[in-house]
Design a protein that fits this description.
The protein is of the alpha/beta class. The chain has helices at residues 4-18, 22-38, 49-58, 78-94, 108-125, 146-154, 156-159, 197-208, 225-229, 239-250, 255-289; strands at 66-72, 98-103, 136-141, 186-191, 212-216, 236-238. The radius of gyration is 25 Å and the shape is elongated.
Length: 290
């Protein structure tokens, strides 16, 4: 009789734990998110070979080189792809590349505008001036998927007679002296699916042998390994982790690094809850057999 009361209390506690209201779990996740977003530290990040390849390729771009940067995603994938988009655009514009953006997704052009506005403002604070139509341009959206990509191989100016603002592309300083992939130093696509990186490899890189890298969501990244191993892609980023790896190499920890801190903390919490839940359930069964 002496040990029954402690056992009974333990049994009640374990029963309560197993039946824990999910709202407490959601609250714990929310609290962890806030704490790790506020804490000023970064977990160790080891860049993957494909991320290193992408970083080295982008950092080989010289001032004045033409870079076609295709933004092929919308708001639904921004949590993973926006950090990639921003850190790559920042690197390109800081290096003085001529950044030519377009999109095969209808909701891509506003995202392009948002990226340009943020990065141009950041560079202006550093004393670096970048001018629309001279150093960068948003060509807008083009329907047609694979046909649109193939059309760019013939002529950017014919494929996009005007830019997103309605100005004739033939009159823009950034569009002078080149017109197709034979003159493009680097092709980059940040995309979520079809059309995206695979279609650019098939329709542009393999035809015109233009150097290419890509950024995709984590679920899409396994599809790119064959193209990376074959040399069609010089590198690629996969999801939020890929963006954090790029930030690590660029020594500019930002949104992706913070996001990985939060994600890692929540993963630890979930694993602990699963282990403790199973241990509690096992203990209750053992007590019931006594």
């Amino acid at each position: 009789m002496i040990n029954q009361e402690p056992t009974s209390r333990m049994q009640k506690f374990l029963t309560m734990f197993v039946a824990l209201d999910r709202r407490w779990i959601f609250s714990a996740v929310a609290i962890l998110t806030v704490i790790f977003m506020m804490l000023d530290f970064n977990l160790p990040i080891q860049p993957s070979p494909q991320a290193e390849g992408m970083y080295k390729t982008i950092n080989s771009v010289q001032p004045g080189d033409v870079v076609h940067f295709s933004i092929d995603y919308g708001p639904s994938s921004a949590a993973e792809l926006w950090p990639q988009h921003l850190c790559i655009l920042r690197d390109l514009m800081r290096r003085g590349a001529r950044v030519v953006c377009s999109s095969l997704w209808a909701d891509g052009p506003p995202t392009i505008e948002k990226g340009f506005n943020i990065v141009v403002a950041e560079l202006a604070e550093e004393g670096i001036k970048r001018e629309r139509g001279v150093d960068y341009v948003n060509l807008g959206f083009k329907a047609g998927d694979r046909v649109a990509i193939a059309s760019l191989g013939a002529s950017f100016k014919r494929t996009f007679p005007t830019d997103y603002s309605g100005r004739p592309t033939a009159s823009l300083p950034i569009m002078q002296g080149w017109d197709n992939y034979n003159d493009v130093k680097l092709l980059i696509t940040i995309g979520v699916g079809d059309p995206g990186a695979v279609e650019y490899v098939q329709q542009a890189q393999s035809r015109y042998r233009v150097t290419m890298v890509a950024g995709v969501t984590a679920v899409i990244s396994p599809q790119l390994y064959p193209y990376y191993q074959s040399g069609n892609l010089q590198g690629f980023l996969g999801g939020l982790a890929g963006a954090a790896e790029y930030e690590k190499m660029a020594n500019t920890p930002g949104r992706a690094t913070k996001g990985m801190n939060v994600q890692s903390a929540i993963h630890v919490l979930i694993v602990l809850l699963v282990l403790l839940g199973n241990l509690a359930q096992f203990s209750l069964r053992m007590m019931a057999r006594r």
